[in-house]
Design goal:
two-stranded parallel sheet; homodimer; 15 strands; 3 helices; 13-stranded mixed sheet; Carbonic_anhydrase_a-class (chains A, B); Alpha_CA_prokaryot-like (chains A, B); Carbonic Anhydrase II; mainly beta; EC 4.2.1.1 (chains A, B)
């Protein structure tokens, strides 16, 4: 029973829905389906920011995610990955941050493996090296496969203010890879910037596979 | 710039998306449309709980809310209303709490005016008075109009633990009213149980009218 005459004394137990988490391929709720994401042909990345921890690119784009319209806000890079899958780290994790009108946030995380060099990421690196501000048009359907697979859960921003209520799609079958030298470039220019994995607590995770 | 070697020192500024709020009919984003909610013909309310502050009814039901499937969890009553509209209070606010698989919460709030007695609420009162545990089947389409109008915004639970990331639909054209004697019954059995309105901060509110 709560005392409505002493509302300042109410416990405000926030902090049980934090990200990143370790994603378990065995303990999730399985769906034989795709992650429900479709987006414009491309996002236009217009501004490139060195925020000290990562490169952050602002721009324009639209996506439909689990049947609701969202607007692209920014993307940035984490090395190594923040989410782990069955305890394993990926060398790179890209976060595409989207919001809607009422302020709901969906982050589409792409878990990237080492392989061929990616030309879009090379453009981003070249612009950064040359300190030039030129738009980069990324074809999201070259980054995100049309049949996206992966995890869906409720968490938080992974950097302060760590706001909760953030919906995560973590894509495990990325359409891109990055080369060893592209990874090396990030390591030379930025320190490791992965927040530690956080407790799952009572949360349920969906796996679309 | 964040220190990834001292993550325990990160600010965790939660508490900027709290509910209830004062809903402004002039400062919201207007849509000439309905609130996107459709539900089963009825929710079956199977368990009636006196939690000290209100009557809480658990049960079964399904709803599609802004294109996603949710499961009904419980409903309860606040007197007077927790949300205010242009500063004005309603005598009663009913909260229908729904969740989905990943733990997202949507509360459908029905702002109820004084008028005719409602038979479903009378059943709930009678069961409570007689201390009997009988299911009450509420026809949600008799509580929620088929063309629901009202507000849509992002907030929190209004009782501890005050969890954020809760999506609110506040219905302003309720299909039901309650009588003076029904209201009086609640006042005789429960103290006022409305949390104070919380600051809006940067949030945007949608108004479907």
């Amino acid at each position: 029973m709560f005392n409505y005459d002493n509302q300042n004394g109410w416990p405000n137990k926030l902090g049980h829905y934090q990200s990143p988490i370790d994603l378990s391929s065995t303990d999730s709720i399985n769906y034989d389906d795709n992650l429900a994401i479709s987006s414009d042909m491309y996002y236009q990345l217009t501004e490139e920011i060195n925020d000290g921890n990562t490169i952050r690119l602002l721009g324009h784009g639209n996506a439909t995610i689990f049947n609701r319209k969202f607007t692209f806000q920014q993307l940035h890079f984490h090395l190594p990955s923040e989410h782990t899958i069955d305890g394993k780290t990926h060398p790179l994790e890209i976060h595409l941050v989207h919001t809607n009108e009422i302020g709901q946030t969906v982050v589409v995380a792409i878990m990237v493996n080492k392989g061929n060099s990616n030309p879009d990421i090379q453009s981003i690196i070249n612009h950064f090296n040359n300190n030039v501000e030129q738009p980069v048009n990324i074809s999201t359907n070259q980054w995100i496969p049309s049949l996206a697979k992966g995890f869906h859960y409720l968490g938080s921003l992974t950097t302060p203010p760590l706001t909760e209520g953030v919906e995560w799609l973590v894509i495990t079958n990325a359409a891109i890879t990055v080369s060893e030298s592209q990874l090396q470039w990030f390591h030379n220019n930025f320190k490791h910037n992965n927040r530690k994995t956080q407790p799952l607590f009572e949360r349920k995770v969906e796996l679309y596979k």
